[in-house]
Design goal:
alpha+beta, Conserved hypothetical protein from pyrococcus furiosus pfu- 392566-001, domain 2, 2 domains, ten-stranded mixed β-sheet, seven-stranded antiparallel β-sheet, 13 helices, UCP033563, DUF1015 domain-containing protein
Amino acid sequence: MAFKDKLAAVGVAAPAIVMPNSDIDMSKWAVVACDQYTSEPEYWEDVAHITDTVPSTFKLIFPECYLEDNDAQERIKNIQNAMKAYLADGVLTEHEPSFFLVKRETGTSPRRWGLMVALDLEAYDYSKDSTTLIRATEGTIIERIPPRKKIRIGAPLELPHIMVLIDDPDKTVIEPLTAQLDRLQKIYDFDLMKEGGHLTGYKIDQSRMESIADALTKLADPKSFEKRYGSKDVLLFAMGDGNHSLATAKAVWEEIKANKTSDSDIMNHPARWALVEVENIYDEGLIFEPIHRVLFDIDTKEFLKTFSSVGAVNFKKLDSVDAIMESIKTKDEIQRIGYVDEEQIGVIEVQDSNSTIAAGTVQAVMDSYLSAHKESSVDYIHGEDVTIKLGRKPGNCGILLPALDKGDFFKTVILDGALPRKTFSMGEAHEKRFYVEARKITR
């Protein structure tokens, strides 16, 4: 079987990646994922200033801190126009179909490796009980898809911040490529803005794809998978970051497919695939961080009382944030959840919760409280410092969660289905994926 057929059988294709030409300042071209710093508009204001007069992915994305602004439609129009202009003016160049090997160094964690590939949206289903090769790992909020569809529909390019995980303990797919760097073409090598670290990219041409195809085929072998996990339904690619972005790509593809039933070549439409970065969950540089919560305009005492609805609860006041973080790391039958508000800090201890993980317990409590208090809201925060800073403001409450054990990640998704939304993060905000590569999604 040819390597292209092997790759297709596991939902993978080699994308024709679009990159800025050699005249572009890459440190200003690349900006962090649009779903970061949503409660810190000053971050994005600074990015806007840095990139004001130069080509940049900032002009091709919609930072989520602006989603509720009144100029959303104008912003989307400007994004799509900028994409078209960059293509027409020669700012961007399309490479022949290939993979890119990506090395990310942040200075705060070991370097990590990723592989840029195109995933087949026909092999993806984001429903909670999905059994497809590619699956969501957290609950997908359907209401979050329509505003993102408006951005993607009519856009000639996609720029992904999607990171997808493989469970490859023997390091057979990505890691062998890292020993061949002196034989690979270096595509980019630059410092990321705003202390984002350093990024290096190498082209993996088709001569090296056979071994990748074989390794992925082996990971997806049904008999081996069933022996390892007790399930006949192979999960090869599990969502890491960008869950709603991939769900949006799927929704747009299904709409295109439905509206072009007379197109005999519809299954070769570029929108059938999505550009993603694949990472091995066993990469030493891949750190699972908790995603904390901050609730705004709430009565903290009333909110905390709501925890009694999900299990046996004990509230313990503590003297420091360090004490909170040490407490919630404890692994036993008790779920420990940190909290901080204007007046106090402490830990919520929950026994016999309806959820097997703390994030699920908190989500149930938040859903209950917010449904009864329409004036209140929540934001999901990467990093304890920001959570504490926002949580201490009058009328707010910060919720601090323990990290998910990445060694149990695939098994949990296979056995329990999608986790509660925003259960984990692969690194803190400055470690998230930066937009660099693009791909054409129209023809």
